[in-house]
């Protein structure tokens, strides 16, 4: 593993943590205000009030931190910019709400997924009709609200109209890529085994761009950074986004549910054509390929099958190879930052974030 | 029925029709471009390419026409403003896509609903996994894309940033009210029989504001109309929106499926607490109340039950009363317009639109 610790890392880490704490507070307060504005006194007040502010404040705010760091590459520390960055967490929560419905995932951030919480509320209150369907509909609509509120949080951040107009193309790109990426993912079935290039393409469009590159470019555009800075951030974001997703895919197979907060092997159960599965298929020998075809063909992927999947994937060498890919990408990301001559604090923060994205255990 | 035909009505109707034709072309072209931008060459290209441009161009563009007429209360005819108005049709299509999934509606605009079209594509291509689930997920994501693209169509309409910034609060209000209204609707079950005031509240928040009032105010805000014009449009929009929904609710029960393009009695099947049902409950005598309770308590609402519903509703006098309510509201809407001293063309167009919203058969 490339060592990415630098002398100024502790200070940058502390700065990121304190920015994140403030941003989390902003996000929670904004949604609390919206719930009050739109739901007070209505029948639907109770589930919305209790659930939403905590739901939106429960994540790592990775995208907001990239956006704020991007801002700091060209602008001074600013409460308004931090609020503008916070909108990306609401946008992310929109995606999570819809994702969990579509994937039928029961857990999110160590809590029952939003649709599950709404379904429970429906049951506890003895409402008629199928509770699961109610939960899914409520979660889809909650996602819709969050997508709209995200943008409102941006527009009401306190940044001036010109700054927001400057960042709008990348903001729209980010949002479109997110929805389109999910759509492409739907028709992407592990049993059809896409090629490694296909997987990289989906990663770039979906998680990679969405998690690192576009948030950074968005923050930098808000601040009016010169094009060469945006380009350097684009290189860093592109390769680090891939590394982020490789780590995510490894955790999806080998992660500890007690730490990740998600059931073990969920990606395998859902037959996602993740980087680790596709790389394993490309690296497999004849016998392994046969075994892999057998696992892909199972109608039900139970715990025993997950165990066999893990052994097989490890045998192909794909996990080790992915670790090397992660390592190389982190190195290239850091080089891009070094060459760009960024201000000291955001440069150090980007090094810390590169570590957090790729060394994480959840 | 109040006669709303005026001497300048034919000219205004022709102007509305030609504006709508151009707007429909704009909407279709914008989505065709987005599909090309994001889907060309991907596995998901085929369903997206064939389905979306026609889907978004298949409606009456009522909200866009209100928005453009609102614009014309303060601005000159403008291709850019017409494109900005067109964004509301994309927003509407977002809502339809999600709505049909949540309601399990199989038909929309005389075509199979989007989720049904996607499910069929999934089946025809022999993809594995449940086709219905795929269709629903694809439709939810399509809705998400349309919500994002709607705003992009607004921002790229060619109107200047200041105009768009002026209209943003009402735009955000419109979008939030839409999602929140749907959410409130979810917990609104006919078997709990809300009061007439509750029904009016939901109508105002959901369909009324969303269909007439906010689009008008949005267009007027884009054009920078003075506050007294926006206020008059708000009055017109508020009462006409209610009348629109009353007509919609009557069509939902008594409409001809061959004309409406929706199965007869869908609202009754879904136990929606619509204006006609709630008003009937308030007007019912003792015997009718008993019969109504019996119908509300049915687990399955079949064609025979729909027939009994129709007879019962008519017996209570609720449909006739609603016709009177529609009439009175149209009259108040037209008065508000007469008093506001609007330019001749939008004033005449608003009178024509009042008729189209409330005399329609689909």
Automatic annotation (TrEMBL), chains A, B:
Keywords: Magnesium, Metal-binding, Transferase. One of its GO terms (molecular function) is geranylgeranyl diphosphate synthase activity. InterPro entries: Isoprenoid_synthase_dom_sf, Polyprenyl_synt. The keyword Magnesium applies. It holds the Pfam family polyprenyl_synt. Its cofactor is Mg(2+). CDD domains: Trans_IPPS_HT (cd00685). Its EC number is 2.5.1.1, 2.5.1.10, 2.5.1.29. GO terms for biological process: isoprenoid biosynthetic process. Gene3D superfamilies: Farnesyl Diphosphate Synthase (1.10.600.10). The keyword Transferase applies. Belongs to the FPP/GGPP synthase family. PANTHER family: GERANYLGERANYL PYROPHOSPHATE SYNTHASE, SHORT CHAIN ISOPRENYL DIPHOSPHATE SYNTHASE. This is Geranylgeranyl diphosphate synthase type I. It comes from Amycolatopsis jiangsuensis.
């Amino acid at each position: 593993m490339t060592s990415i610790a630098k002398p100024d890392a502790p200070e940058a880490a502390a700065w990121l943590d304190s920015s994140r704490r403030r941003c989390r507070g902003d996000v929670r307060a904004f949604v609390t205000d919206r719930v009050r504005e739109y739901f007070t006194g209505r029948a639907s007040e109770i589930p919305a009030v209790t659930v939403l502010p905590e739901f939106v404040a429960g994540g790592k705010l990775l995208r907001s931190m990239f956006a704020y760091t991007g801002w700091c590459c060209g602008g001074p520390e600013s409460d308004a910019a931090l609020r503008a960055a916070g909108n990306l967490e609401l946008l992310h929560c929109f995606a999570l709400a819809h994702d969990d419905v579509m994937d039928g995932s029961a857990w999110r951030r160590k809590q029952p997924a939003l649709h599950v919480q709404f379904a429970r509320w429906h049951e506890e209150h003895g409402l008629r009709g199928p509770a699961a369907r109610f939960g899914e509909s409520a979660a889809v609509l909650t996602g819709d609200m969050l997508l709209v509120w995200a943008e409102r949080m941006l527009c009401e951040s306190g940044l001036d109209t010109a700054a927001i107009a400057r960042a709008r193309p990348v903001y729209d790109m980010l949002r479109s890529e997110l929805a389109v990426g999910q759509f492409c993912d739907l028709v992407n079935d592990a049993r059809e085994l896409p090629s490694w290039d296909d997987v990289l393409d989906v990663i770039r469009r979906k998680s990679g761009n969405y998690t690192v590159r576009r948030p950074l470019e968005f923050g930098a555009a808000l601040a009016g950074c010169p094009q060469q800075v945006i380009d350097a951030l684009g290189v860093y974001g592109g390769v680090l986004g891939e590394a982020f997703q490789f780590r995510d895919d490894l955790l999806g197979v080998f992660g500890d549910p007690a730490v990740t907060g998600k059931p073990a092997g969920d990606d395998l159960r859902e037959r996602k054509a993740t980087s680790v599965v596709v790389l394993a298929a490309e690296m497999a020998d004849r016998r392994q390929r046969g075994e892999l075809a057998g696992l892909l063909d199972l109608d039900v992927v139970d715990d025993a099958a997950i165990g066999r999947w893990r052994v097989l994937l490890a045998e192909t060498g794909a996990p080790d190879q992915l670790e090397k890919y992660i390592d190389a990408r982190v190195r290239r990301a850091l080089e891009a930052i070094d060459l760009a001559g960024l201000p000291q604090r955001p440069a150090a923060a980007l090094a810390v974030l590169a570590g957090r994205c790729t060394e994480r255990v959840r």
